[in-house]
Amino acid sequence: MKRIKFIISNPFIFAENRSVDKLESLAKEGWQVKKIMLGGLVYILEEVEPTTIRYHFDSHPNPTNDYYHAFEIAGWKLADTTNSLHLFYAPAGVARLERNPEKLQSRFHKESSYLGKYSIGIFIALFFVFLGSVYIEWNIVRNMLIGVLSILFIGFAVTFTPYAIYKWRMQKLRNTDTN
Description:
Pfam families: DUF2812
Strand order of the largest sheet: 1-3-2
Keywords: Membrane, Transmembrane, Transmembrane helix
InterPro entries: DUF2812
Distance between the termini: 51 Å
Largest sheet: 3 strands, antiparallel
Transmembrane segments: 115-138, 144-166
Order of helices and strands: EHEEEHEEHH
Protein name: DUF2812 domain-containing protein
Shape: elongated
């Protein structure tokens, strides 16, 4: 029976290259990705023979058979997929796939605008609930509003943080395109 282990890695949007490097070094130790969870934050690895393989992340919201077939032709196999994030692997001799900066920037723009809309909505709700908790005199209602305020603050942090990171990565892509 093969052993499995769970690892927590840098989420894809934070540090794609560090995640790939970590997974490749684990493959040399005899651990290969079996499943991706939580957008590339958690990986389930299974024990295999130590090998040198390469990993490649790609993002495609609605992949088709042609999408996967293009990777197969290039020598890459699908390790796993979660939402629009796909992890491929190939033997060490297979050429690395080049990123299309325009495609990546377009994806970052779509996802950041999606998260930005939610962040604005949550921030507006946060503002009004905060005002309500300050001006309402009834203790029971005030306590309930403080609870709602806490939940909204967490929601804002969860949506605004990736929004800011996507914006930062878009700026970083623009800067590398101009250099």
